[in-house]
Design brief:
heterotrimer; A mainly alpha (298); B alpha/beta (423); C mainly alpha (305); B: D-Maltodextrin-Binding Protein, domain 2; 6-stranded mixed β-sheet; C: 305 residues; MetI-like_sf (chain A); ABC transporter permease (chain A)
Chain lengths: 298, 423, 305
């Protein structure tokens, strides 16, 4: 289930064509089906198109609230206003900060923990630690939220830093599960060879284990980014100071105030969505394979 | 509210440093200013924030060693207590939220302050609406608000209508306006609190002994229900039915209008009456200083002697037990409670004094209420006696929007009993 | 998955397992695990224990409190607001699971067939997975509140002329649509993986037997995809039970309280002084999540055998 599926899902070059041929008979491509699916993509594209189109309107045109009229003239007025109103550099920076902690933690902490558990699978304590961490997959945030609010306040972690740490911890079980499974597929000889060369455990991890883990760690890291960047629930409950809120939470302000300045709100939505979409475009193959990996393991 | 007291910041940055991430978490804190002790002062009454800010400036000039940080972030107070980081001093509405803080022993005792002895007895009685903490004076009353029907004197005069003193006179006045094509009452029902604190409180307060009602309800506790000797179903039904008969005297789009719309409309003479308090009168004065505003209690019976005005403790000062700078907080508290600071504030905010030596109100927009206050013809809003975990404001909105009254009152009884069982 | 059952480790014994050394565990290994374990305990295990503890008290989140035994639990089962949010959440989740899986399955079948532009189309269909739920909910809120009524008025379709978000009987539908919109890609990718794992000669053989596409779907695709359907149904159901972001963005629980999810109800305990009470709600919610996990493990184990 490891590398072969990455190829088949991620690049789709190896798709077995014989079966479709058998089903469809002589035609190489099924044109009606292609058209139906192309129409279906509108369900995805229309909301995104409306977002972009509204964002580039002038205030006067946006206030009409017409979703499908094109911006006439093109204007970046909405972006300028949204930039100021959401204090974009700060909220963007805080979102980056939270996501960076979540990604670094997901990749490093999960990898190290997975390696330690893998290398000591025969020991009761490590096995216990593994199931202990896994058990948290049944404790979603709403169950723990009220206690976490209190505890995070008590230790001064009712901040973006605290949210980053919680993001790591909520993903830990799943990530350790993925990574230990991956490590089991690793040839034992690799580690042994490093040992014979006199490398310490620390060196072995960095020179041998981590490079081997890196494809899976990349998947883990990208999902950590998407989860952390897009999350609204945890920052909105944990971060106490409204001035330290992340982008998704800050965008709530358009719900109460300035409600008909659609060019501003949509410009702001676009600026909040764009980074995740850009990351996705560049990391498609890990995203696509990651979902499948996760499903098969969980 | 980009500022945090330095103590919090240093604690946070310590932790951040431990994680190797110092600096990034400091984004939200302001630079320190010398050796002054920063104390966090929580105050969210929106209409007076600029005024209070100036007072804080004066205080800092007189006490350079103490730097008050003005925390005006609405809706964060409960969270601050849950997170064990309450403000050092607060100047807030005395309501059920406050009562929870005092009941659970989170507010420090202020009874030793000389200022406490100056509070009038009738104001002290108002503290009885909520459960208190034994042996403590948890809050120091600061400003009392009296509220009654706000009316436009010019429109009344134009149509030859005098101030009504009985319910039938009130209905007659409404009909006169309606016949003349004038909106009798401006409704802002999109904001549930304006329904609860206006329509509901005025109609109930004009007919029911509110403090007595809650004392009995608290005695009954979990036994409150359709068959108990006192219940919301029994006591509130008649006044609220009467309230519903007043709805047709509101403008047609009251459902979709909010508090801001109402202030604008009333300031521009779009209605004869407005069921709001002096806080709205201040706003109306800002929008149109020429509006001739007066106030009268909503008559609910045929006996003028039954008429009362609604009062509440609009502001009270308190210091949490867990405040980090108790002494400095007390310094600021005593500064704010000085008569030469407190009395001009009340004049500015159209509040009534709470001290024995406080001067009577002089603003003619509210002087009509002074006689009622003086002779104790006052009531507390029924909406203020119901804990906030019962969504009473939303229930009121439902009823005004057309839901049946009886199921709502039955639900209120059930909510009250359920709450009492786990108190 | 099977790793979480108690007898599983023996079966899934790691391929690279070495004979366990008898000496004490490597210090570096301990360093790799122990701090994480400690942080995990503080962030996850401690709050869980604390939540259960407080659910037996009358705490408002601060200050003094007393034990009240099972009072919170007794009362929450008769509290119409809490029960309504449980029923709403379960019902909404069930409807959305069905909608999501049907759409995802059909898309997966389409996207594994011989079509043009397969790679770009797959990429497009995955986009909803990567956008922020609350932000996209804000966008849809605009479409439901402004665009849809305008369109309905233009064609004279009465039921949609007023915003469905303001209609207590229809607001849930908007939440189902947006939640499904976002959840379809994940389920679809899993179905695609499943479809690609079906050997092509099965179809060839059945085609020789004269089976048409519909017959092939019934005889081959659906039976062989059963385990993937089970995985997807469970995964999506578990996610939907925690519904929060999209509801906040679309209706904020309204109109009235008609679309309030369990998560929103629990969070309300933080603002209103219902701290301990909503901790009890959270504990019940945890038990429901756990029950679903047990069902999940049972189903998975059956699949393995």
């Amino acid at each position: 289930m490891s590398s072969s599926s990455i190829d088949s899902i991620g690049t789709t070059r190896r798709i077995p064509t014989n079966r479709s041929k058998a089903r469809l008979g002589k035609d190489k491509y099924n044109l009606p089906l292609t058209i139906v699916l192309a129409v279906c993509t509108l369900a995805v594209l229309v909301p995104l198109f409306v977002t972009v189109s509204m964002a580039f309107k002038t205030g006067a045109q946006a206030v009409e609230g017409k979703a499908f009229s094109l911006p006439q003239p093109l204007s970046i007025e909405g972006f300028v206003e949204a930039w100021k109103m959401t204090d974009f550099p700060v909220s963007f920076g805080l979102s980056v900060f939270v996501s960076a902690i979540a990604v670094a933690g997901a990749v490093l902490i999960s990898s190290m923990a997975a390696y330690a558990i893998h290398a000591n699978w025969g020991r009761k304590f490590f096995k216990f630690a593994f199931f202990y961490i896994l058990a948290a997959m049944f404790l979603p945030f709403p169950v723990l939220a009220l206690s976490q609010i209190k505890l995070s306040g008590l230790v001064g972690l009712d901040t973006p830093l605290g949210v980053g740490i919680l993001h790591i911890m909520f993903m830990l079980g799943f990530n350790v599960l993925l990574l230990t499974t991956f490590l089991r597929g690793m040839p034992h000889e690799l580690e042994e060879a490093a040992r014979i060369d006199g490398a310490s455990t620390w060196q072995t991890f960095w020179r041998v284990i981590f490079p081997v883990l890196s494809p899976m760690a990349a998947t883990v890291g990208i999902f950590a980014f998407l989860f952390s960047w897009n999350d609204f629930m945890m920052p909105s409950m944990i971060i106490s100071d409204p001035a330290l809120q992340t982008l998704p939470v800050v965008n709530q302000l358009f719900q109460s105030q300035f409600s008909s300045n659609y060019h501003i709100s949509f410009a702001s939505y676009l600026m909040a969505m764009a980074p995740a979409i850009i990351v996705f475009v560049f990391t498609q193959r890990w995203v696509l394979s990651g979902v499948t990996q996760g499903a098969v393991k969980s | 509210m980009a500022t945090q007291p330095p103590s919090t910041v240093s604690r946070r940055s310590l932790l951040a440093g431990a994680a190797g991430l110092a600096g990034l978490t400091l984004a939200g804190c302001s630079g320190s200013s010398g050796d002054a002790t920063a104390i966090r002062f929580y105050q969210t009454k929106r209409e007076v924030i600029p005024y209070i800010r100036e007072l804080l400036g004066e205080f800092h000039a007189e006490f350079p060693g103490i730097r008050p940080i003005h925390d005006t972030s609405e809706g964060t107070l409960n969270g601050q207590f849950v997170r064990s980081s309450p403000p050092d001093l607060a100047l807030q509405l005395y309501n059920y939220e406050m009562a929870r803080f005092q009941e659970r022993g989170e507010l420090s005792d202020l009874s030793d302050l000389p200022e406490a002895a100056m509070i009038t007895d009738s104001v002290k009685e108002q503290l009885d609406l909520y459960p208190s903490y034994p042996g403590r004076l948890s809050v120091l009353p600061y400003s009392m608000m009296s509220a009654a029907v706000v009316y436009n004197k010019e429109i009344f005069a134009q149509h030859g209508v005098g101030v009504p003193t009985t319910h039938s006179e009130f209905i007659a006045a409404c009909e006169t306006f309606q016949d003349a094509g004038v909106t009798p009452i401006y409704g802002t029902w999109a904001d549930p609190w304006t329904i609860a604190q206006g329509l509901v409180d005025y109609t109930v307060g004009g007919m029911v002994d509110v403090i007595g009602l809650f004392q009995q309800l608290r005695e009954l506790g979990p036994d409150v229900g359709p068959d108990s000797r006192v219940s919301f179903s029994k006591v509130l039904r008649e006044p609220l039915e009467k309230m519903l008969t007043l709805l047709p005297f509101h403008q047609g789009d009251a459902n979709g209008r909010n508090y801001g719309d109402g202030n604008n409309a009333f300031a521009n003479g779009q209605a004869a009456m407005y069921l709001q308090g002096p806080w709205a009168v201040v706003e109306i004065g800002k929008i149109n200083p020429d509006t001739q505003v007066g106030t009268f209690p909503l008559p609910m019976t045929e006996d003028p002697a039954d008429n009362k005005v609604r009062v509440n403790l609009d502001l009270a000062l308190w210091i949490p037990e867990k405040a980090k700078h108790q002494d400095e907080a007390r310094e600021l508290l005593r500064f704010l409670a000085r008569p030469e600071i407190q009395d001009p504030y009340n004049e500015h905010a159209l509040g009534f004094g709470v001290r024995k030596d406080a001067p009577p109100v002089t603003d003619e927009r509210i002087t009509q209420m002074q006689p009622y206050v003086d002779r104790g013809a006052v009531f507390q809003g029924v909406s203020q006696g119901i804990p906030t975990n019962i969504p009473f404001y939303n229930y009121c909105q439902d009823v005004v929007f057309g839901a049946d009254l009886e199921p709502m009152l039955a639900r209120l009884d059930a909510d009250w009993a359920r709450l009492a069982k786990r108190a | 998955m099977s790793l979480t059952s108690s007898e599983a480790p023996a079966r899934t014994a790691p391929a690279g397992l070495r004979p366990t050394p008898k000496r004490r565990p490597d210090k570096t290994h301990l360093f790799f695990l122990l701090p994480t374990l400690a942080a995990f305990t503080l962030c996850i295990a401690l709050p869980a224990v604390m939540g259960i503890f407080y659910s037996f008290t009358n705490s408002v989140g601060y200050g003094e409190w007393d034990f009240v035994g099972l009072a919170n639990y007794e009362l929450l089962f008769t509290d119409p607001a809490i029960m309504a949010s449980f029923w709403f959440t379960l019902w909404f989740s069930a409807v959305t699971v069905i909608a999501t899986n049907i759409v995802a399955f059909l898309l997966a079948v389409g996207l594994t067939a011989q079509i043009r532009a397969r790679v770009p189309m797959r990429a497009i269909f995955v986009i909803p997975m990567v956008v922020s739920p609350i932000i996209i909910a804000f966008v849809f809120q605009f479409l439901f509140a402004r665009t849809l009524p305008t369109a309905a008025r233009a064609v004279g379709f009465g039921p949609l002329e007023d915003s469905i978000l303001a209609n207590p009987n229809l607001a849930w539908a908007s939440i189902v649509i947006v939640t499904a919109w976002q959840a379809v890609p994940g389920a679809m990718l899993i179905y695609i993986a499943g479809l690609l794992a079906i050997p092509g000669d099965l179809y060839e053989a059945s085609a020789l037997d004269g089976a048409g596409p519909w017959k092939q779907m019934q005889m081959i695709t659906i039976p062989l995809m059963a385990s993937y359907i089970v995985i997807n149904v469970i995964l999506t159901f578990k996610n939907f039970l925690n519904a929060y972001d999209i509801i906040v963005g679309l209706t904020d629980g309204g109109p009235g309280t008609s679309t309030r999810s369990v998560a929103m109800t629990i969070f309300s305990g933080f603002e209103t002084g219902d701290y301990a009470y909503q901790m009890a709600t959270a504990t019940i919610f945890f038990l429901i999540t756990l029950a679903i996990a047990v069902v999940q493990m049972r189903l998975m184990r059956r699949k393995d055998q």
